[in-house]
Design brief:
The chain is mainly beta. The chain contains two helices and 14 strands. Helix content is 5%, strand content 43%. The two termini are 24 Å apart. 51% of the residues are buried.
Length: 310
């Protein structure tokens, strides 16, 4: 899938030095207040747009358009896994659209095992509507400059496809998948599939300029084997899910959301290489011989706030 659009959630694919915290992002062209907040299928932070493919069609005669976002979160969580060590994160993004085409870039603070200064992401794609379905196809590149001396690069690219449609006037569905041939530069391929629902509170029940949307989604990630230098074993497959509510008032957005995964604390360490992991877990002679455990994949409630300018 292309890029998850929910600008505030900086789409950091994470990365870890050994077993990677890496994953594939899904696209999610967010929608304006009257159409409801986009359903997150695995968003990555301050990813750009809130433009639907239907809006892009209307923009054919409007030429080049720009949008920007900036904000922060109490925890930067991507597909159930923290990318900020359970600490606050900040980010910003900008997107340009022309007809059905778009290009974007974002910057966000992260706290990862290789200690990069930040995440820089770039991408582009095309949005089109076919019948009642909106489609978004795109590619993204993720870079992590400023890593500690000697740390391996965790830069990588991925492609994604997403579709969304209205089931009723207020109820929406979204689904998609994504693929990376070398996620977080670990040598492992990665696939991700996800689906979600969203409910937009009718505008007639709300004060002027206020939008309220409830959304929930679940996704599944599975991976190939890492390079021999990283152990040669496959990263642990896992399920993630989230549910929450988004409030929109003019250019201000506020999101309250619950995240979780089915990863054990031992597999969470294997997946993230959390430098703060502690002993005491079950040992695996291949993937986790010391039984280290991490809380980076545990349940979390996150508050996010951002401004969007169009």
């Amino acid at each position: 899938m292309s890029n998850e659009r929910g600008l505030f959630w900086i789409t950091v694919v994470c990365c870890a030095n050994v077993p990677a915290l890496a994953q594939i992002q899904t696209i999610s062209p967010a929608t304006p207040v009257e159409s409801g907040k986009a359903i997150s299928l695995g968003d990555r932070g301050f990813a750009p747009s809130e433009t639907t493919s239907q809006e892009a069609s209307k923009a054919l005669s409007e030429g080049l358009k720009w949008s920007a976002k900036a904000g922060g979160a109490s925890d930067y969580v991507y597909r159930g896994v923290t990318l900020s060590d359970r600490k606050p994160a900040l980010g910003a993004g900008v997107e340009a659209t022309f007809s059905h085409f778009y290009a974007w870039m974002t910057a966000a603070s992260v706290k990862l095992p290789t200690e990069p200064d930040l995440e820089l992401a770039f991408g582009g794609g095309i949005r089109r509507s076919i019948g009642n379905f909106d489609f978004d196809v795109g590619a993204s590149y993720f870079a992590y400059p400023g890593a500690m001396p000697g740390a391996p690069s965790i830069d990588f690219w991925e492609g994604a496809l997403r579709s969304e449609t209205k089931l009723t006037e207020s109820l929406r569905w979204a689904g998609g998948f994504a693929y990376s041939p070398n996620v977080s530069n670990t040598g492992a391929w990665s696939w991700y599939v996800a689906s979600g629902l969203g409910y937009d509170v009718p505008g007639r029940l709300l004060p002027p300029d206020l939008g309220v949307s409830f959304t929930a989604a679940a996704g599944y990630s599975w991976f190939g084997e890492q390079a021999a230098a990283l152990g040669g074993f496959a990263l642990p497959d896992y399920l993630n899910w989230h549910a929450g509510v988004t409030f929109t008032y003019k250019s201000l957005n506020l999101d309250l959301r619950y995240y979780d995964t089915n990863l054990s604390k031992e597999d969470c360490f294997v997946f993230t290489a959390d430098p703060g992991a502690h002993r005491g877990g079950s040992r695996d002679p291949i993937t986790n011989p010391t039984g280290l455990m991490s809380n980076w994949c545990s349940a979390a409630v996150v508050v996010k706030a951002w401004f969007a300018l169009n």
